[in-house]
UniProtKB/TrEMBL annotation:
UniProt entry keywords in alphabetical sequence: Disulfide bond
Natural source organism: Knipowitschia caucasica (Caucasian dwarf goby)
Function (record text): Involved in an early step of the mitochondrial complex IV assembly process.
Keyword Disulfide bond: yes
Protein name (Swiss-Prot/TrEMBL): Cytochrome c oxidase assembly factor 5
GO biological process assignments: mitochondrial respiratory chain complex IV assembly
Length: 75
């Protein structure tokens, strides 16, 4: 679910909600905090896989010409 804040600046980029949640998931994961690994290393280990897939689908829907009928995926 997307996180909403009252005093947050509006991000007009595509897939901003999924991007923010994906970033938060990676940076708050035990792999990064406790083990001190880079977020890219934690991605290779398979952490936050659901949000990674959602972000990929959202970005891919930007290039899909059928999305003008279906709308962008993500939030």
């Amino acid at each position: 679910m997307p996180k909403y804040y009252e005093d947050k600046e509006e991000d007009g980029r595509a897939c901003a909600g999924v991007r923010e949640d994906f970033k938060a998931c990676l940076l708050q994961h035990d792999c990064v905090i406790k083990e001190g690994k880079a977020p890219s290393e934690c991605l290779k280990e398979g952490h936050c896989k659901g949000l990674q897939t959602s972000f990929f689908e959202c970005k891919r829907s930007l290039l899909d010409t059928r999305s003008r009928f279906r709308g962008r995926k993500g939030y």
